[in-house]
């Protein structure tokens, strides 16, 4: 167990904001996280809407929410044709 705690300090989870909000007050609505396996996760508010992994590349869910979430999805990737259903998203996420 002790060896599992010896993670490279440069590879720990990190977070960032994506998008083009003019005010940092809204930055918490568009957060991204990277894990120590090289995967990136994109949230719109509290909802995971996209991820990127070595196995699948960038995977973005189709918009089933609101115009605001649609704006967030466009900031991640404007190609709406590449978006996947929630079912496909969850399957690919489980394989990442």
- Overall strand count: 5
Count of DSSP-assigned helices: 2
- In helices, the fraction of residues equals 10-25%
Output the strand order for the largest sheet.
1-2-3-4-5
Give the CA-CA distance, first to last residue. 24 Å
**Uncertain residue segments:** 1-5
Largest sheet: 5 strands, antiparallel
Radius of gyration: 15 Å
Strand content: 25-35%
Task: Write the H/E string, N to C.
Answer: EEEEEHH
Number of domains: 1
Backbone shape: globular
- Determine the structural class based on helices, strands and strand pairing: alpha+beta
Average pLDDT, to the nearest integer? 86
Give a structural overview.
The model is unreliable at about 1-5 (pLDDT under 50). A five-stranded antiparallel sheet has the order 1-2-3-4-5, sandwiched between helices. Helices cover about 20% and strands about 25% of the residues. The protein has helices at about 65-75, 85-95; strands at about 15, 30-35, 40-45, 45-55, 55-60. The chain is globular and about 35 Å long. The protein is built from two helices and five strands; from the N terminus they run βββββαα. The protein has one domain (about 10-95).
List the helices and strands and how they pair.
Elements: E1 14-17, E2 30-34, E3 40-44, E4 47-53, E5 57-60, H1 67-76, H2 86-95
Antiparallel strand pairs: 1-2, 2-3, 3-4, 4-5
